[in-house]
Amino acid sequence: CYLHALSLLTSLAVQIRYTIFIRESMIGDGKSL
């Protein structure tokens, strides 16, 4: 049970980090332009 919750949490954290990275990169491109 703990392992399943941990895997779900890690996958969620990776998704959030990935989306934040994409958003920051997009914002940076907009600022540079």
Task: Please explain how this structure is put together.
With 33 residues, this protein is mostly helical. 94% of the residues lie in helices and 0% in strands. The longest helix has 31 residues. 0% of the residues are buried. The model has no long low-confidence stretch (mean pLDDT 87).
Topology as a string of helices (H) and strands (E) = H
Cα-based radius of gyration, to the nearest Å: 14 Å
**Total number of beta strands:** 0
Stretches where pLDDT falls below 50 for ≥5 residues?
none
Main beta-sheet annotation:
none
Give the rounded overall mean pLDDT: 87
N-C termini distance: 48 Å
- Helical amount: over 70%
User: How many helices?
Assistant: 1
**Structural class by secondary-structure content:** mainly alpha
- Beta fraction of the residues? under 5%
* Backbone shape: rod-shaped
List keywords for this structure.
33 residues, mainly alpha
Précis, in short:
94% of the residues lie in helices and 0% in strands. It is mainly α.
Secondary-structure blueprint of this entry?
Layout: H1 2-32
